[in-house]
Specification:
mainly alpha
Length: 174
Amino acid sequence: DCAVTERAVTSQPAPMSKSVNITPSSAQGESDLVSATLNSPKGRVVLATITYSLRVARLRKDRVANQRWPSAIREEFTKRLDRRYDDSLEFSVSLGEYLIYLYSLDKGWVEQNIDLIFPKDSEVHWLAAFTGYLAHGTVYNEFYDILRSRNHYEKGRTASIQPDRLRERLIHHI
């Protein structure tokens, strides 16, 4: 039986910190950041950590509705929002691409950190996160309003978003 039990999932800490720290970034210089992230070891670790968190959230019934992910992972993601600690583009792309999942895990964390997820003071990380966000394809009213009010869409209009299919998605969003 391949089913994962609640006890097995909720009793083990996720090994993101160690795995991400020893995995080199491979997305630097790539023209298609989303594909490069999806195919990179570091991108896979971030996605696995988010997937793990979603699984834990589904199994834990005792969690606060708005903060459903393991606190150790929440702290790790918060620490990595400081790009001096983790300057990988894979983390930035993943934050944007999986923003809706992070929002379902902890709405307050996303709202509080939206300008760190999309850091305007770091063009390369802002572009990576926004590219990831556009790659998801769906326009979510929750994010549209927040990103619009903070001028992220305006910034996107003048950014060099690649490939063209993502630029078209930006136009669709606006």
